[in-house]
Every structure is written in structure tokens, then in C-alpha cells.
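Practice problem: predict the structure.
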Amino acid sequence: MIEVRYHDSVNALRELCHPVERDDARSPFERPDWFALIENTGVKPFIAVARDANGSFAALALTNTGGHIHALRNWYSFTWRGNASAADGGEACLRGIAQGLRSNGHRVSLEPVPNEEFSCDQLVAAFSGAGWEVFVEECDTNHFLDVGGRSFAQYWGDRPGQLRTTLKRKANKVTVEIHQKFDSNIWSKYENIYSKSWKPEEDHPEMLREFARAESEAGRLRLGIAYFEGEPIAAQFWTVENGTAFIHKLAHLEAHKPLSAGTTLSAALFEHVIDADKVDFIDFGTGDEPYKADWMEASRARYRIDCLDPRQPRAWPALVKRKLKRLVQPLANARSRS
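Answer:
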């Protein structure tokens, strides 16, 4: 017997986790505190939790807007995935949540879902098994580096010649600081650089500030600032945990672009996390910008899982569009190859 309950606060996720496990997630984007930060931006959580008599469980952090249920995420989130205990019990609990969601909405859209540890496959199986029509497509790309036990010098020797030449020519033109403790004055420098850079305006910059503050308290913050003649001209916000460095934000002032301060700052942070923090992986978030391939050596897809309930008329228009797209896409691909 599987019991499914729904909650309007992320506190349900905190209660599900052992205190030690709250800080032992695979990424920052799976901790209850991350979802709490999103909740504080004004998004109303819809947390689904399932348990069985043997102690197995599953949980999905969601939000429900008029019957269209979405992953509880925002644009700061690299990934979103479900949380389930191991083996068959957890999978059955996930399927129980998927079945219960048919009484709460006509559509469930989940993204950006990774497939490391078969996270995407597991969700697809759960919703398909619960009677949803499930459509899966790639929605983004994640560039990452497997350090493979190399030192920074070894890693740097494998970079493209043009990148190494740029650093050699420009490194002495700027000075770099790497901060591991949150300081409001230093963070204001980051915000000022970001606001004047080419980057788009952020929806909730105060959320990122609170995240940085919390990461500092946990010892995970790595905030780099590059200066030219005392002026802050480039900034990068990284965090480090459980053997992985996450590159959250980077920006520079376009007026100083010829100095290549971003390259110098990136190299300093890569050196720090590889040689000092001894990370195994570096995660460059989402986006398939060409420059990321100079720094990273592999990429992997992020997926959108769109689930529609064929029993509900409200789902039919989207279901028809999805099925037509599924039929037309192979024809379009065939034409492009001919």
C-alpha cells in the first residue's frame, strides 16, 4: 500500500531527509534549502510525497498552476529531478505519485532533467506506467569536465593553443581575488559587474545573494573578482561540494573586453578548484555556448518530460500537437538529410 500526500511547503522535503543528507545532495539544486529559496521568490510549492509500508519513499518538488503542474525550479537551476529511495520500492512510490497527480492536473512538465543515474528514464517509466502520454525531448546542454586526477598544469596543457596563448599574453594585465567567505561589499562588486555586462537582467537577484550567503556558511563559496588598475571588471560565482565545482555565474565589463579578464579569472578558479579543492568534476551549468568547449571536454543533454492525461479534455489540444509533431518530425529530418 502506497500513501501519497501533498504539501504546500518545502518543509515536507526537510522532514523527508535525514539531517546529514540535507547537505549531501548530488548538487545544490536537490537540497530542500534550494527549493525554499525558490519558494521565497513567491512561487507556491506543490510537494508530492509517497511512502509505502516498508519505508520506501519518493518525492517530487512541483508547483501547480491551474492544473498544469511544473517542476519547482527557476533559471538558476542547472537541473531538476525526483528523489526516491533505491530499488523497486522507490520506483513504485514514484509511480504512485504519478498516478495521484492525475487527480490534481491534466499536464505535468518537468525540466531540465538529467539522465545521470537514469533520473530521466525513471520518471518516464513512472508516468508512462501511471497512464500518462509521455513525450521526451532535449531542452538544453550541460558542458562538464572530468578532471581525471590531473593537476591544473596537466589540464591546462590539454587546452586549445589559442586559449593558452591568450592567458600567457593577458594574465599580467589584471589582478585576481578568490573569496570563500561572503562579504556584502564583494558581492556588490559582482552585482555591479553583472548589471553592466552583456548578461540579461535576472528575475530574482536577491535569491542568488541569499544562496551565496548560505554557501559561504557551509564552506562551499568560491567568488572570483578580477581588477584592472583597482577597478573590478570581471566576476565569477562558483560553488564546490561533494567533489564537483559548479560554475553559476560569470560576467565582465565589455569596455575592458580586450584585457581578456574573464579568461584570466576562469584560469585562476579552475586552478583553485583542481589543485586546492581537489574536485573530480567541474559543471558549467546549462547552455551550449561555443566557448565552453575550450574549457570543458564533454557534454550531456538535459531533457524536458511532458506528460499529458488522455482522459482529460483540457489535455487534448496539447496532446494533438505533440502527436502531430511526433509524426512530422521524422519526415522533416529525412528531408534535411536528402
